Amino acid sequence: MRFFLRRAAFYLFTAWAAITINFFLPRMMKGDPVSAYLQKNQGTISPEAIESLRTLFGVDTDASLLRQYIDYWGLMFAGDLGRSFSKGLAPVADVIAVALPWTIGLVGIATIIGFFVGTSLGTIIGWRRGSRADALVPIATFFSTVPYFWMGLIAIALLSSTLGWFPASHAYSKGARPGLTLEFVADVIEHGALPALTIVLASLGGWILGMRNMMITVLDEDYVTVAQAKGLSPRRVMVSYAARNAVLPQLSSFALSLGFIVGGTLVMELVFSYPGLGKLLLDATTAKDYPLIQGLFLVITLAVLAANILADVAYAALDPRTRQTEA
After folding, report:
1. In Å, what is the CA distance from 224 to each residue of 134, 213, 234, 236?
2. Is the distance from CB of 306 to CB of 313 less than 8 angstroms?
3. Which CATH architecture has domain 101-287?
4. Three-state SS at 15
């Protein structure tokens, strides 16, 4: 219990610091969202409407910075992240809610598949070190070193334009009506297969290499030798003794990769013209849409914190020594 309380206190403080920085950072930048909005709508807004906009965007010059900070927390707890002027003054939470499922659905699933496939292959390659299975390591590492945009373009040219196996872009066919129907779901899966494949190939080398190296290190430990001396089956020794301890460092990397799912997909979404948070962040930055940028940074920060919390819980469950040391 002491372990979980200490970790909870740490993450609460981290969340407070991140949200506070997220509040002050846009206010330290040159200009403000109202000025950027007025540049796009010159001569169409009255002075009274300008003051209303300043209140709406949380940059009311009549209110103190402390008052704005308190109001910011109150609005955030109410689910109000402001208004996006580049999206017709639509609520920021609604704009993010539209793009978030596409990013999580594609990149999240691809990242999980890459982790489990890479970790499983790394376990087998490390267990059978010195065998022909080692040839997979340089092959997978090569795909990891290729720039992602180049790999995406090659995949489009080969698998889409030449062979016609997958659509080249977008999340679903033009003219399709979104809905929970088998036809639409199949269309989404077909369009997401190619970018998901490139994500898995790009990440596979790191997972394989990391797990293989940890397996080689763990196999020299005394508890593995004792388990083999007891006559346990090779499969049980590999999974329950070697892999269980070797996978621990992988969990930290996996947590970080999960956290950056919501913000680290910009290149993929540009190459495949895929809707998501990465493309939305680029559009918001180009339009100087500070409320939307602020909301996206908040979502990315909370996603990273949530992923690290899950990693800590999994780490403590797999390795009791962690709980004892923290306690």
Report:
1. 21, 16, 10, 11
2. no
3. Orthogonal Bundle (1.10)
4. helix
Q: How far apart are CA 136 and CA 3, in angstroms?
A: 40
Residue matched to tokens 């299975």: 133
What values do phi and psi take at 90, rounded to 5? Answer: -75, 150
**Pairing status of strand 83-84 against strand 90-91:** antiparallel
Give the integer Cα–Cα distance in Å for 286 and 279. Answer: 11
Tokens of 165: 């196996």
Query: pTM of the full predicted structure?
Result: 0.74
Distance CA 262, CA 277 (A): 6
Q: DSSP 3-state assignment of 249?
A: helix
Domain extent listing, the chain: 101-287
DSSP state of 46: -
Tens of pLDDT along the chain (327 residues) come to 676 777 778 888 888 888 888 788 766 766 666 666 666 666 566 666 666 666 666 666 566 778 878 888 887 888 778 778 777 778 888 888 888 888 888 888 888 888 899 999 988 888 888 788 888 888 888 888 777 778 888 888 888 888 888 888 777 777 777 777 788 888 888 888 888 888 888 888 888 888 888 888 888 888 888 888 888 888 888 888 888 888 888 877 787 777 666 655 777 788 888 888 888 888 887 777 778 888 888 888 888 788 777 777 776 676 666 555 555
Q: Which two tokens stand for residue 264?
A: 């680290």
Answer for the pair 165, 190: CB distance below 8 angstroms, yes or no: no
Tell the residue number behind the tokens 């947590």, with chain if given: 255
Q: Which two structure tokens, joined as six digits, stand for 32?
A: 């403000």
How long a stretch of residues is the chain?
Answer: 327
* Distance between CA atoms of residues 75 and 123, nearest Å: 48
Q: Tell me if 114 sits within 8 A of 203, measured CB to CB.
A: yes
Interatomic CA distance for residues 25 and 182, integer angstroms? 44
